[in-house]
Each structure stands twice: as C-alpha cells, then as structure tokens.
Design brief:
The complex is a heterodimer. By secondary structure, chain A is mostly helical. Chain A contains 16 helices and 8 strands. In chain A, helix 3 runs antiparallel to helix 6, helix 3 runs parallel beside helix 7 and helix 6 runs antiparallel to helix 7. In chain B, a hairpin with a 2-residue loop joins strand 8 and strand 9. The chains are: A mainly alpha, B alpha/beta. Chains A and B meet through helix 1 and helix 5 of A and helix 2, helix 3, helix 4, helix 5 and helix 6 of B.
Chain lengths: 512, 247
C-alpha cells in the first residue's frame, strides 16, 4: 500500500453551481452506475436460456402457424411473456436479493446515493437485458413473418403488450428479492409468477371477464388468434391498451413500494404506489366492461375508437378457375388449396344457368355465447359469398385434408345447393326433394377423410340420408364422368327452372 | 472537530450495546480498542450513519446526520470499511471500487482516475481487472480499504482493517493510515494493539458499551506498568485499563 501521492480528487463544490450542471453531473453518474450494472447483470447470462426456451416452446409453434400477421402476432403475445417469465423473474429476484445475500447492506447503507435510486439502477439494468431479449424474440418472429406473409403489416399491439409485461416481471422479481433476501426467494418468486400467469389465462370466462387483463390474452379468450380476426377489420387495441395500463401500473406500484422504506422519500413512494395501483385497478375494471365484437375482437367502450371499425381496404386475390374464387390477400396462400378442394365443383357448375360469376370470401361473423363459447357464421347465404373456415392448414394442427373437407362441407355444398335448389327465397316451402338432394350429393367431391358423422347435420336438409334410394342415386350420379354430369346439369338446369322432382330411384328427375 | 459524540447510546432490544459514549476528535488517526462485544462496531456503524443512535448527540464533519440533507453530505465525505466485507464476486476490483465511488456520488468525470488511484494505494493496481471471486481474503480486505478511500474521505471509519493482511501489508497499511490521517479523521477499530501503537495519535478503549480510557498510545502504555499483563507494553496498558474498569 502506498502512503504517498494522495490523489487530487477535487471535491464537488457543495453549492453555487447551476442546477442544470448539477443535474447533468447526476445523470452522468447514474449513467455510469447503470453501465456498471448492465455489465455485471445476471439477466445477461440468462439471455441464452430465454432464447432457448422461446425457441423450444414458442417460436416453433408460432412459425408452424400459417404466415398471417394476425395469427403470428397474437400467438406471440400468448406465448412470449410466458416463456420469459421464469428466467426474467429469476434474474430479477437474484439481483434484488444481491445486497442481502452478499452481506453488503451495511457497506451500501453508508453511501450517499439513496437506496431507492440504487435499487432502481439494478432493476433498470435487469429490465434492459430482459427487454432486449423480448424484443429480439419479437424481431425474429416479425422478420420471418414479413418474408412469408402475403399481405399486410405487423400488428404492433401484441408486441407492445409483451414488451410492457417485461418490466412488470422484473419489478415483481426484484422487489421480492429486495424484501426477502434469501437463497429461496428466487425459486419462490419464479414459481409464484409462473403459476400466476398461467392461472390468469385459465380463469377468464367470456367477454366481460376481468381476467382478460392478463397480458398473455390476445383477443377473445376462446378463439384468440384466428385467421378471420383482425383481417378484414383493424386490430382493435382496446384490450391491449388496458393490458399495457395494467402492467405499467403494477410495475410503477411495485417500484414505488420499494421506496416506502426510505424515510425521506416515503411520501413520494406512497404517491407513486397509489398511482400505480389506481392505474392497474382501473385497467382491470375496464377489462371487465369488454364486449365481443362481431369481427372477433374485444371492444372496451371507454377506450374504443370508432374509426377502428372501418373495414380495411384490400384488393382480393383470385384464382384462375372456371368460376374464379376470390379471397382476402391475407388468405392468398390458401388459394391453391381452396381451388384444389372445390375445383371439380367449380368446373362442373361453370357456365350453367345461375352459376355465380365469381365466388368471393366475406368476413366471418363471431358471436359470444355462454361462457367462453363463440359461434362463427358466414356473412352471406348465396354461393357467391363464402367464409373461409378458421381451421386453415397449420392452424392448431389442421391438415390440408381437413381444410379441404371443411371447404367441401361449406363452400362446395353451398355452391351445389344454390345451383340445384336456387338462391335465396327460391326453395320450396316443403324443403328439397330427394332427387335434388341426390344431385347435390352427387355433385360435391368430398375427400375420403370426411366421415359420415361430419355430414350428419346436413342429412335431409342438403344431403340424402345414407342408405336410402336417393343416396344410391347420388352415388350413381357421382360415378358419371364430369362431362356427363355437366351435360346432365346443363340439360336439366337449362330448362329455366331448378330440378324439383321427387323421384327416388334416379337423379334424372323430371323438370317442370 | 470532525467527530463530536455526546452521551450516545444504542439499544438492540434489551441489550445496551453503546451506553453513553462521549468523544471528540479532529484530523488524525484515532484508535478504538476493546474486547469482543465492547460496542466498537456498533459505535462505528452509528458514525457511518448505517444505524441511528437510540439517544444522545452525534455530529459528524460539523453536521447532524439525523437530518436527510446533512446525512447525505456526510456520506459523500465518508469512507467506511465494515468488519465483514460483503462483495459481489462477479465484479472486478476496479468495478467494485468504481461502484462505491458512484454510490458516494463522486463526480462521474473524476471517478476513473480516483478508482485507479485508490486501487494503486492498496497495491492492487496489477489486479484491477481481476474478478473478486478469485482474490484471497487479504486482497479482498485491501479492496475494501480501496472502496473506503476512493472518495478521499474527510472521515474514514475502518472496522478491523488489518484482519487477514500479512505482516508486510500491515506495515504498508499503517503507513497509509498515517498519510490519510494528515488530512482526514481516521477512526480505526481493532483488536491489534500494535496497529494502534504504530499508527494512532489518539486511542480510546471501550468496554461494555462505555469508553473506559481516552488518551494517547503513550498514556495507555503508561497504565500498564503496574498491573497489566501482556507481551508488549501497549498490551499491558490495555489489560490494565480493562482490569481497572471491571474491578
């Protein structure tokens, strides 16, 4: 140790400097402290764990979804914060308990910087790394989706909610560590936060549920990320705003509570805590006023902007089939699958009297029923308008075969029945005849994956009951060549009226 | 006077750790001696503004640390090395010292030079970038001293600073103490009477929460000529005063 050469470290002038210079010096000091905390922060070392967890648990499933912005972004909100919860809370609790665990409390207690300020520096560094990890995950998903999506741009609100949830996790973890500085606080805080988040997603019931405030909830609880949601209409930010308000409020409240023990700043800390709690409570109350929008999102009246209800303009993508099928460009990637599924019907009915000039996708109409139940219905009743099923290939494991079967059950039968029975108001009051049902059934090419039970609701209404003569007639009609069926349909539909015969042995019913 | 203590007490529940201590000292090295449990550490913690006194009057550097503003001013001018030095094992020597320089609210622009100087003064310049987890106990003690002196304190409180230092380092440290004592008030709590003899201009001996002796090392040595026991003259003075206080 050297006794000589005492350093010339001039002490700052206690008074007389301008307030601005003092503030700048304080900011510089805080900046250096933050830089030091950033360099030696546990969260930095846990970033690989964050990325591994997200890749394993979230990324693979998100990227398996169809490349639609709404699906990917909303699923990202469902998953990202959940994947971050364990490493981020653990790192924050570890950092928060650092002074107590390391027996350094006496040493830092005798320093000039207030404890609250010191703790906020540690929390901010932890949050900065965690936020960097969160945003990196968002960036990867969004960049990949940008390369794959056929239409539109990223909805930012799901990413904002996830990003706003990160400071909440770090604040809870850090405060737990600071208040209970023991070796067990890290696993305990982590478990509590993890199960708290999980419970929040399970407890919601219906569009008025307060639990929608969970930052993991994107859109309506039951459908969440569905292809038809936020496609024809804008992504409604109402619930997202409430969620950000909640997470920010909770963050502020917890950080404020950290400062309550400091005698000098107690009043300020109490005010900050109260403001945070008020914001969080208000957000929960707002979530409870939500109602399910027909377009599939949650509307919160107090936060709703009516301008968001305007449909989004788009140029449809159309197939080059005898009867063009036109879909929203976000669904363009499914167009080949659609035309493959209903192509035979399109070819068969093209050019026939009453055939639509084109078939256009229309928006689905969603409706909340009891509990979390939601019904999805089509926007029209004619073959010219159809709703693409939410179960598109890749969505929740839906296969191409299942998608084709749904199209045939919906769009194919709609087209055939419209051609055979006529459009709105043209069906007889007594319902379709057996011959008509036979022709409809013989015209639609159901894939082999369609089972009888899938079609049961249509028996007697649009399809003949299995085993009856009309069913056998349908099979015989289906066995004809496409050209023969087309000629038959042209001959019978060309007489100016729809086939309404009641024959039970043949599809060649009489025309009136 | 940099330290003015009048009838200071501190209770922990029913235990009276410091029982009416009065003390005044200015620049120089002040030794605080006493057996285990005498109240030295508690007195130092009060002087370091870590814990408030239960009663009595404490003025440090001409300020009342009971009020927030003056306490913050005192802390900016204070260096403190606790008996048990906690540390962050992932920090390097320089980072740890820099951390405390910033917590003491040193002007940020002066921090790098002050850190380098403090680390050099405890002979750890070559290990400035070494992680604390790799250092020996004696080196960690020197890191603790470096963080205490990084802000060129006007009041330096050292609790058992030489514990764990090898003889050569203790000699160096005493020289450092004498140097620091020329400009600041240095209060050293220790069991090692030879440290007091070598570096302190004033010494107080505590027992059972009270000051039982206050004077120079020479005066303490003189007390040991009659009934003290020990190998060194100062030790004999120490034991003699304690025996007298307890009789």
């Amino acid at each position: 140790m050297t006794a000589a050469t005492a350093p010339a470290a001039p002490r700052p002038a206690p008074t007389g400097r301008s307030a601005r210079r003092g503030a700048a010096a304080a900011a510089l000091g805080s900046g250096r402290l933050l830089r030091l905390e950033l360099r030696r922060n546990a969260m930095l070392w846990l970033l690989p764990v964050v990325f591994a967890l997200f890749w394993y648990n979230g990324y693979r499933e998100i990227m398996a979804l169809p490349p639609m912005w709404n699906l990917r972004a909303m699923s990202l909100q469902n998953r990202l914060l959940f994947d971050l919860a364990v490493p981020v809370t653990a790192a924050a609790a570890w950092m928060g308990s650092r002074e107590g665990r390391r027996g350094i409390a006496d040493l830092v207690a005798g320093t000039a910087r207030p404890r609250w300020s010191r703790q906020l520096a540690g929390w901010a560094a932890t949050t900065a790394w965690a936020e960097a990890g969160c945003l990196a995950c968002v960036a990867v998903v969004y960049l990949m989706t940008a390369r794959q999506a056929s239409w539109g741009g990223p909805p930012w609100w799901p990413a904002v909610v996830s990003a706003a949830g990160v400071p909440m996790l770090t604040a809870i973890g850090f405060a737990a560590g600071a208040w209970f500085p023991g070796r067990f606080v890290t696993p305990l805080a982590t478990v509590v936060v993890f199960f708290g988040l999980a419970f929040g997603t399970q407890a919601a019931s219906g569009d008025h549920s307060y639990w929608q405030i969970s930052p993991l909830t994107a859109g309506a609880v039951d459908i969440g990320a569905a292809p038809g949601v936020a496609t024809f209409y804008r992504y409604l930010p109402d619930l997202s705003i409430a969620q950000v308000m909640f997470t920010a409020g909770l963050t502020v409240a917890v950080l404020g509570a950290l400062g309550i023990s400091a005698a000098r700043m107690r009043w300020l800390a109490v005010v900050i805590t109260a403001v945070g709690l008020t914001a969080a409570g208000t957000a929960v109350a707002l979530a409870g006023t939500g109602r399910f929008d027909p377009h599939g999102m949650i509307v919160i009246p107090a936060l709703h902007n009516a301008a968001s209800d305007q449909p989004v303009r788009y140029t449809p993508a159309c197939s080059h089939t005898p009867i063009p099928v036109c879909v929203h460009p976000a669904f363009a990637t499914f167009l080949p699958a659609m035309t493959a599924a209903v192509g035979p019907e399109l070819t068969e009915f093209a050019g026939l009297p009453g055939a639509p000039a084109r078939i256009s996708q229309v928006t689905a109409v969603y409706r909340q029923v009891s509990g979390n139940g939601i019904t999805v219905s089509g926007g029209g009743t004619s073959a010219a308008a159809f709703v693409v099923p939410d179960q598109v290939p890749g969505w929740l494991g839906t296969t191409g075969g299942e998608f084709a079967a749904q199209l045939d059950e919906g769009m194919g039968i709609q087209l055939a029945s419209d051609m055979i029975l006529g459009g709105d108001g043209q069906q007889s009051a007594s319902g379709p005849g057996q011959a008509q049902l036979a022709v409809i059934a013989g015209s639609v090419r159901f894939p082999s994956s369609v089972e009888s039970r899938d079609l049961a609701p249509l028996y007697g209404r649009l399809l003949p009951q299995p085993g009856i003569p009309a069913d056998r007639a349908a099979r015989r009609f289906a066995a004809l060549s496409p050209a023969a069926r087309h000629a038959w349909l042209a001959g019978h539909l060309g007489c100016g009226a729809r086939c309404t015969g009641t024959g039970t042995t043949t599809a060649r019913s009489r025309c009136r | 006077m940099n330290v003015e203590i009048t009838d200071l007490t501190r209770r922990f529940g029913r235990n009276l750790a410091v029982a009416g201590v009065s003390l005044e000292t200015g620049p120089g090295v002040f030794g605080l001696l006493g057996p285990n449990g005498a109240g030295k550490t508690t007195l130092l913690r009060m002087m370091a503004t870590v814990i408030p006194p239960s009663s009595g009057r404490l003025r440090l550097l001409g300020r009342d640390p009971g009020a927030y503003g003056p306490r913050r001013e005192v802390r900016r001018r204070l260096g403190y090395l606790p008996q048990n030095l906690g540390y962050y094992p992932g920090f390097t020597v320089a980072e740890f010292v820099e951390y405390f320089a910033l917590l003491k609210e040193m002007p940020a622009a002066q921090v790098p030079a002050a850190v380098a100087t403090a680390v050099e003064r405890v002979d750890l310049g070559g290990r400035a970038r070494t992680k604390l987890r790799t250092l020996s106990g004696g080196m960690l003690r020197r890191v603790g001293i470096a963080q205490a002196i990084v802000n060129e304190p006007e009041l330096l409180l050292l609790d058992e600073p030489t514990a764990g230092l090898d003889p050569e380092q203790r000699v160096h440290f005493r020289a450092l103490l004498r140097d620091l004592g020329q400009r600041a008030t240095v209060v050293v709590s220790t069991h090692l009477v030879e440290d007091v003899g070598a570096a302190c201009s004033q010494v107080a001996l505590m027992d059972q929460g009270k000051i039982v002796f206050h004077g120079t090392p020479a005066e303490l040595t003189a007390r040991g000529t009659e009934r003290g026991t020990g190998d060194a003259p100062l030790e004999r003075g120490y034991t003699a005063v304690l025996a007298a206080a307890r009789s």
